[in-house]
Amino acid sequence: MELHLLIVSLMVCSTLGVPTRGRIFGGDPASPGQFPYIVALNNVDQFCDGSIINKNWILTAAHCLPDITSNTSVLVGTNIEHSGGTTYSISKAIAHEDYDSNTTQNDLGLIQIDGEFEFSDTVQAIEFGDPEENASCVAVGWGATEHVSFPEELQFVELRALSLEECQERVGDLDPFYLGPEQVCALGPEGKGVCFGDSGGPLVCGGKLAGVVSYSVSVLPAVTHNVRVIGGNTAQPGQFPFAVSIMMPSFGQNWCGGTIISKNSILTAAQCMNNLFPEDVVVVAGTVDLRTGGTVYNISQVTIHPTFNETNLIDDIAVVKVDGEFEISESVQIAEIGEVLDNDTCTVSGWGATENINAPASLMFANLRALSVEECDKLAEDGVFDVERGPGQVCGFGGRGNGVCYGDAGDSLTSKGKFVGIASYAVAQCAVGWPDIYTRVAYYKDWINTII
């Protein structure tokens, strides 16, 4: 059975946060006006949710706020993501002053809109409430009905609020994370719960806002788009001189990984740059520790593969050009693109988690094995890996305790000293023994050469 534990933040105390974005799956479509307090935060497409709490303020998750740009809009008054409703611009966004992205504490954010909401049957504020153990609750969001299928229709799913003791007992050692009195777990039955893409949405118990969706933990979770190296070793200076960090200055942490492929270009995952502007992020090269050293480069141009599919992550590749040129040295080098064959020994390197939610600033690496399509399918034959793949993708398998996890898509996969893949997504819970998916770089070599 697939148990899904939704971790939310209590309104009465504030909350937690982790980069694993929750999205409803196995839910039912909402009727117009059924949840008039729900809002969608959009950068072209929806990336987080929130709840209206008065005429000009929204409550959401703090880890959603770094994605906000000058073009982010707030959509209210509709249950269809790209139809109807009213759009508002954002004037202010405030994260809880004690929000900690590593420990997942205090994951609350407030957003103020320009002007005021026009209340109606489909736009209303919601009151705060305190959930009781075993209370029947509802999570709401624009969510997946399957692991990678995203309908535009608002979804809701019924869950049960757990005590912290029961939550910790069910999770056990599978997913170490902080649990405190300001948090609540909510459990959905098999096939129902939250997955990726819809953090910040409401958990409603007894008709009142009891929590903010922060992240999900599951025994067999859905595909996780953003990945981090897990169970790896710390890299030595100059060991991976082609590896760069794509950082969001407003966030102060690694956003994605990348690989130097020319004097002014890097390769990364398309998902990392989708809906971002070049000025939103910078490239850091020449260091294995993001707290010290390295050179920062501004970005001048981003080219995402024209057929990138953000639903199944096929063609998940982008070329990023920096202002000026990289200064080549022992710690900054250009990677040579190569082919990867079945059963090749590979190494993934990136600024990644050593556990499911801990993200150190040191460059990490882990050894993997490239799988054949048949072997990859066999390892995932239980149906967890019900995801379309294409010839431009390769499976990597590090066994239990090694692989990729959330937060660091775009990292380098190398084999025999050559750059062969880009970390795209983890099929399951961090390093529990399922394959991870990489973009096969050599497959796109002709396209890359037309840009650089």
UniProtKB/TrEMBL annotation:
Residue span(s) of domain Peptidase S1: 24-452
Top-level taxon: Eukaryota
InterPro entries xref list: Peptidase_S1 (IPR050430), Peptidase_S1_PA (IPR009003), Peptidase_S1_PA_chymotrypsin (IPR043504), Peptidase_S1A (IPR001314), Trypsin_dom (IPR001254), TRYPSIN_HIS (IPR018114), TRYPSIN_SER (IPR033116)
Family annotation (PROSITE patterns): TRYPSIN_DOM (PS50240), TRYPSIN_HIS (PS00134), TRYPSIN_SER (PS00135)
A GO biological process held by the record: proteolysis
Assigned keywords, A-Z: Disulfide bond, Hydrolase, Protease, Serine protease, Signal
Transmembrane stretches, start-end: none
Molecular function GO labels: serine-type endopeptidase activity
Entry annotated with the keyword Signal: yes
Sequence similarity: Belongs to the peptidase S1 family.
Name of the molecule in the record: Peptidase S1 domain-containing protein
Organism annotation: Tenebrio molitor
